Structure formats: structure tokens, C-alpha cells
Amino acid sequence: MKKLDIFVGGKWQQGRGNEMHSRFPGDQHIVATLNSANLEDVEDAVLAADKAWRAPSWRSQPSHQRATILLKVSALIEERIDELTHLQTLDNGKPWAEARGLVMSAAATARYFAAVCEVSGGELPPRRQSDMMTLSTYQPVGVIAAITPWNSPIASDMQKIAPAIAAGNAVILKPAEATPLISLKLAELFEQAGLPAGLLSVLPGKGSIVGDALVRHPLVRKISFTGGTNTGRQLAHIAADKLITTSLELGGKSPTIVLEDADIELAAHGVCYGIFSSMGQACIAGSRLFVAKAIYKPFMERLTALTQQLIIGDPRQERVHIGPLITPAHRESVIRYVTQAINEGGTIRLGGEIPSDPSLQEGNYYQPTIIEGLTNQASVCQEEIFGPVLVVIPFDDEAELIDEANDSIYGLAAGIWTKDYTRAFKLADALDVGTVWINTYKVFSISTPFGGFKESGLGREKGIESLKAYMQQKSIFLALNPQPNRWCE
Ligand code: ADP
């Protein structure tokens, strides 16, 4: 099999690091082989990026021309939607329908930031002197290190590349080791859309080698990261030493709350999707479920029945809901959490095993699993499992519920299911999380900011203001009636 090239400073070339593979998690076959980037590739990409964003032809390019590139990328993604969906599914095992949704969202993200960059400008602060005016302007930061995880690569890559390019920066993308393919494909599309060489590089490889060298490079002036909380914390330390800014989208252990007046059908469907879509491999997975005791029995019966209907299988088949987990090692980690839950006194209501279907034995499949009988103190309620495992806790006192829902190092998202919107708003207000979904879950909008409280992150992605996260503000004072300042006379 021919090895894939990587994209370094506008050139397609063999990486100079170790050999690595992209494997299809559905049966572990090798989809592509490539050599990862090494430290020389990092150096070349950063130097090319620094030159490219400073080039007068790029710096003087009006924002509406930068927008044109993003619009072309968006159109190219839409033209090649089937190919990209297939690639995303092969690379990370996400079921076809979900992968397709992500590809469409990447096209929408590129289009959105094209629009934002067309209309985004500086400010004219109020004048405080008649002979002076001031301008508040925004300029690119420079070279951005974008580091992304394996769970939704096309969406997370585009959420970083699009605003960074719209703002006039250069981006070096370090995709997760397990999923390099879609990031390299995106580079191809940006090149085809006319992005000048050097403004985007894609450096697959190990986080601890390629990612680390990239973020420590003195010419890298911002880190935009999505991934685990521990890695995010390490990157924040490096950024603090360099005095550069970060945007960190980290882990979660999101509570979903079903109040006693909830529409059971609506809530059961929403909770099922909220935890089991993407096999729970989502930072926003609704993995801690609090159910009012008054409706616990009928609600759990309906949720269990719906979960039993989920089709586990090859994610390339359109009707499949539950595909494989990303790697055998990750499935092992999920299994360890389930064993720990049992050891701590939990009982398995559903799942808890590797599916027995002989056709699934080569892949990293795991049954959607529901665990009961634990309190919020259990390790599976406190730690992020990142798998198809839901822990359910009954409640009857709302004040205690709020304390328990907030008793987490994380604060990414929460769900509330109730017909009483006044109560829902009060509850939403009391939860220490960055996103609250009321009578819905795990829906997104590129025009609405997203990010975490507490150890779930720093900064916000999406929304008009997110463009400014990739810019630095500069003030310009203009004398309107210049006179010598006779101070020294
Ligand atoms: P996950 O558990 O989702 O894989 P990680 O935080 O380990 O989360 O990985 C997310 C991204 O961060 C990946 O691209 C990974 O290679 C990268 N990464 C991991 N460790 C480091 C590091 N020390 N420095 C820079 N990037 C890293």
C-alpha cells in the first residue's frame, strides 16, 4: 500500500517520523499507512507558517477575499460529502448518519466564518478630546497550533481552522494519532480552494512528540486544543510560560435531569441519543442521569426498551446506531470502568458486555450499558468514561439534586427534561455548566458559543465573538490637529 503524504508548509511529502496506521475500528484493518511528522517537519511547518501569515499579499488581503476561500472550501465539502463521510467513518468508526451530519456541519462552519469575517470590524471608541480620535482594530495573532482529538475530527478541525484563517492567521493542525485521514483531506480542499502555501499544515503524529514540539515552538502564538482535561492542563502550563493564549475544550461528565413532570417519551429518546450516539465518545455525552423517583420505574422501562432497539454493527451501514469504539485499548478502559462500577456496588440494568455476534468480533464493539444502584460519589459518576455507559441516580429533593449535579470537577453541559419552563430556567441558572439543553440534548449551533466551566475548559468556540479569540486588539491614536508638544521647552 502506498504511504500517504503529510502536508508541511504547502508541500505534500512523506513524514520524517515513525510509521503509523489509520485502522478501521470496525475490524481493525489498515485503511492507510503514513509516516508521522517529526521535529524537523514541525520546524519546517512553523517557519513556513510564520512567513506565510506575515507575507504582505496575505496581510493586506481584505477579509472578504479570505471569506471567498472559506466559501469555496464549504462548497467543495458539500460536493464531496459521500467521500468525506466514508473517510470519517473508516477513520474513526462513527456511524454513517452521524458522520454525514458532522461533514455537513464542517461545511456550515466554513460558511459561517466566511460570513463573520466579512462583517466583523473594529470599533471607534468615544472621543475624549476634540483633537484626537482613537481606533480599536483587530489583527491576526500569527501561527496557531490546533490540536484535535479522534472523536469528531472533521467538525473539531474545522471549528479551529475556519476562524483562524478567517482572522488572517496561519494554522498548524495536529490531528489525533488514530484519525489522521480527514485532516489531510481537509488540507487538500483548502489547497484546492486557493489558500496560499504555508497557511495550513497538517502534522499527524504522537501528541507527546509532535504536539509537544509544536506548542513549545517560540513562533507559535496561540494554542487551540480539544481533548482530555489532563492534556489541556499541560498545554495551559506551556502557554502560561510563553505568555500566549489558549482555547481549551476539555472533558465532561454531564448530568441529564428528568423531572417528575417530564414527557417520558420525549425524555427517554433524548437521553438515549445523548449518551449512546457516537458510542458515548463525546465530551458532551449525557453520562450521569438523574431521574425523579416519582417516575423512575416507567421512565427507566421506556429508556431500557429504546436502548434495546439500538442496532449494533458495521458503522458503514446506514441503519446502524452503535459502531465500534475507537481502539481495542479504549474498549479495555471502558470495560475496566464497568467492572469498577460493579465492584463499587452498581448493578447492570442493560448491556455490560462485548456483543456476542460473531460478525463483530474483529471490531472494538461494546454494548450500550446502563448501570444503577450507585451514588454520585462512585468513580463512574466522577470520571469521564468516554464510552456507551450511562449511570442512573434517582432523586426526590431538588436542592440536593442541584448539589449532586454540580458535584463534579467538570462543567461542560447538562440536560433538563420538564414541561415547566420556569422551573427549567431556574435549574439551568443553578447548574455550573457551559451549555444547558432543555427538552433536547446534544444539538449544536455554530452561531451559539460553546465551552466549559470548571475543568471542562477555557474560552469559547463558535459564535461571532469566537473570531476575536484568534485576533489581537490594537489601539491607534490619531491626532486631528497635530501641534508640537512643548513639554521640553
Ligand atoms: P483523548 O483522550 O481524546 O485522546 P488527548 O488529550 O490525549 O485526548 O488527545 C487529544 C489531542 O491532543 C491528540 O491530538 C493528542 O495527540 C494530543 N496530545 C496528547 N498529548 C499531548 C501533549 N503532551 N502535547 C500536545 N498534544 C498532545
Describe this structure in words.
This protein is an alpha/beta fold. The protein has 2 domains: 2-250 and 456-475, 3-Layer(aba) Sandwich (Aldehyde Dehydrogenase, Chain A, domain 1); 255-438, 3-Layer(aba) Sandwich (Aldehyde Dehydrogenase, Chain A, domain 2). It has helices spanning 39-54, 56-59, 63-79, 81-92, 96-119, 153-166, 181-192, 207-216, 229-242, 264-276, 296-308, 328-343, 379-382, 398-406, 421-430, and strands spanning 6-8, 11-13, 19-23, 30-35, 132-140, 143-147, 170-174, 200-202, 220-226, 245-249, 255-258, 288-292, 347-350, 369-372, 389-395, 410-411, 413-417, 435-438, 453-454, 457-458, 471-479. A 7-stranded mixed sheet has the order 13-14-15-12-11-17-18, sandwiched between helices. A 6-stranded mixed sheet has the order 8-7-6-9-10-20, with helices on both faces. The protein has a two-stranded antiparallel sheet with strand order 1-2. It is globular and about 85 Å long. 52% of the residues are buried. The chain binds adenosine-5'-diphosphate. Adenosine-5'-diphosphate is lined by residues 147-150, 174, 176-177, 207-208, 211-212, 215, 227-228, 231, 234. The active site is at residue 249. This is Aldehyde dehydrogenase. Belongs to the aldehyde dehydrogenase family. InterPro entries: Ald_DH/histidinol_DH, Ald_DH_C, Ald_DH_CS_CYS, Ald_DH_CS_GLU, Ald_DH_N, Aldehyde_DH_dom.
